[in-house]
Amino acid sequence: MQRSLVLNSTNNFKTAFKPSLASSINLVFNAGTRFEDTQGVANVLKNFAFRDTQNRSSLRQVREAEAAGGVLYSSLTRDNLTLSADFIPGHEDLFLSLLADVVKSTKFAPHEYKEVVKPAIDSEVNAAQRNPLIQAIDAAHTIAFRRGLGNSLFSASEQPVDLQDVKKFASKVYSADNVAFLTTGQSDFSSNLSSYFNDLTATGQVSSQPSKYFGGEQRYSLSHDGHSHPSAFIAWGSTSPSPAHNVLAELLGGQSNIKWSRGLSPLSAIEEGNVNALNFDYSDANLFGFTVESSTDLNVKTASQKAVAALKAVAQNGVESAQLQPAIAKSKFNYTLYADSAQGWKQLNGEGLINNNLKSLDQVLGEFDGVSTTSIQQAAAHLLDNKVTLVTVGGRDAPYADELHL
Amino acid sequence: MVNPLKISLAPYIKGGLRKSLEPIAKGYLNLAGFKQVGLRYDDLIQEENDQMQKVLGRLSPREEYDRVWRLRRAINQSIQHKDLPAEQWSEEDSSQQRYLTDRIVQVTNEYTERELLDNPEFKIEPKHH
């Protein structure tokens, strides 16, 4: 960001470049799960990346990437679908033409869907369901925001996706005005983009319903495979995301900077279980919450009650500025670290560019500095005004929402 | 590597030669007797190999059902030493007779490509800055 970020708009493409030793090309599409017209379609499209195209078979893409020294991958969030190629400099044209193939001419062959894509989706779903917290957080989004932002990240096998719907979704989202090109490398090669992507059709930027927060409760039983613990995710949503929420998460659940220490934050003092504060930021909403993990349902319940009490204490009594300063500093540090990482750079710039609301690092850090003891108390109180979202994965002793002493 | 389609000279026979040979070929197909028990030409292709298994996996549920039904009916007729009534003989239409061919070619191409790419000779020239 800042000096290292070069913003271009050659051929009306939204592009950004960052100098780095290894090269990468990232195509960030406004095609996350919130833009789905049929359930699970974004996840299927993500798994259809780098499959057979008119010019290259799936195998050929992998072998070419291997021969040139690179990796190909696609990733999906609620807001974005990203197609990425990381590689050693010198092979820009190969990877550009490969990515252009994927976007413009994926075949969506029925046999490939059945033989390769569906098993990939199933194993993704299975892996997610093995982890109670992933399951809880995904379900919490659905309860909190229902349709749109609440769409599940996974494509459940109970809701098989028709291949025609995938093709329709692909032709809608793989559009010239729905994408940001983020490249890194030793020299800026954004000017090469147009020769590969200029015939990408522009069918308009996709849009989704503005998010609305609902809240509610959901209970899952824990699968007894011996690897997972009873867990809970307690969350509150808001449709006006503010840096105060990030600082609040840091204040309540900040991790220790010292190895083997639990830290001094209110949540780390809870002995019954492992409690963390998280804040999920999206383009038009956020979900602030606590993940609770413990050995028994009863411990999850006690730990959840204590976590809620910690948030209520902030809302009622406020915080000392001596506590707030380290939390702000930690939030700024975490953000900077994230913005500096390959993943964070893609995510922040991709989303900022597509939605034309890119913020500079100084701007964001300034917003963190602007968080005051009053604004954080207000933010906490506002969150508690809303109905809670509670997802538990455990047995009958796992807490109900009314047992959290809200 | 097995090619389920076996070696055939048919694609190389063209023009007048083809015209003169075609009645003989048709006569041979009728004498072979599979049409009379309701089988299609592609039902006779040996399926005990990986490629054919993959091809058969790509049939739609309807096609798969019909294929099994044709095979069972043919076995039944064969046991009885009887041909089906003429209206139930398999169709003349070559696209129906060769309903698997395209998919066999597709799968064989995939296998050939894998073999080629597993022993790659292609070269990617890096650009020097």
Please, could you describe this protein's structure?
- The complex is a heterodimer of chains A (406) and B (129).
- Chain A is of the alpha+beta class and 406 residues long.
- Chain A has 2 domains: 196 residues, 2-Layer Sandwich (Cytochrome Bc1 Complex, Chain A, domain 1); 189 residues, 2-Layer Sandwich (Cytochrome Bc1 Complex, Chain A, domain 1), CATH 3.30.830.10.
- In chain A, 42% of the residues lie in helices and 18% in strands.
- Chain A has 13 helices and 11 strands.
- In chain A, a hairpin with a 4-residue loop joins β4 and β5.
- Chain A is globular and about 60 Å long.
- Chain B is mostly helical and 129 residues long.
- The longest helix of chain B has 20 residues.
- Chain B starts with 14 loop residues before the first helix and ends in an 11-residue tail after the last helix.
- The mean pLDDT of chain B is 89.
- The interface between A and B is medium-sized, with 19 and 13 residues.
- Chain A: Its main location: mitochondrion.
- Chain A: This is Cytochrome b-c1 complex subunit 2, mitochondrial.
- Chain A: It is a peripheral membrane protein.
- Chain A: It holds the Pfam family Peptidase_M16.
Write down the overall geometry of chain B.
extended
> How many helices of chain A?
13
What is the H level of CATH, i.e. the homologous superfamily of the largest domain in chain A? Metalloenzyme, LuxS/M16 peptidase-like
Number of strands of chain A: 11
Contiguous uncertain segments of 5+ residues of chain B: none
Strand content range of chain A: 15-25%
Which oligomeric form is depicted?
A: heterodimer
Q: At CATH's second level, what is the architecture of the largest domain in chain A?
A: 2-Layer Sandwich
The structural class of chain A is alpha+beta
Keywords (chain A): Electron transport, Membrane, Mitochondrion, Mitochondrion inner membrane, Respiratory chain, Transit peptide, Transport
Membrane topology (chain A): Peripheral membrane protein
GO molecular function (chain A): metal ion binding
Domain Peptidase M16 N-terminal (chain A): 21-155
